[in-house]
Design brief:
Length: 117
């Protein structure tokens, strides 16, 4: 499985990459660079996407991917450390794709990845 991780925290990105070591994993800390990959035609079985990043929100990233590669937008799994923030609950409830709370529940991540296949 080819997986793209879009996560502004290098440590989280590398931890996820280690966990997913049996797959081909690309980690991008900058969403603009990750988006460039998709625009130029790179394709992924799954895209793990941080919901809250300083340069671009996960929702904005998702919307841009939806414009250029709708089939890739369906492969996005959102992640956030702010799942318990009541202010974000309406946003989380409206997400078009699954969402993982950080710290990542490994069993749930495995299930979501299996579901994408």
């Amino acid at each position: 499985m080819n997986i793209l991780i879009v996560e502004d925290s290098t440590l989280i990105g590398l931890a996820l990459k280690r966990f997913l070591a049996t797959h081909v994993v690309t980690v991008e800390t900058r969403p603009d660079l990750a988006l460039e990959r998709i625009v130029r035609g790179d394709r992924y079985h799954a895209i793990l996407l941080d919901l809250l990043m300083p340069e671009m929100t996960g929702l904005t990233f998702h919307a841009r991917v939806q414009e250029v590669a709708p089939e890739q937008a369906q492969r996005i799994i959102f992640m956030t450390a702010a799942a318990d923030d009541a202010r974000l609950q309406p946003v989380i409830d409206a997400l078009p794709n699954p969402m993982l709370a950080k710290p990542i529940d490994v069993a749930r991540l495995r299930k979501l990845l299996d579901d994408l296949l």
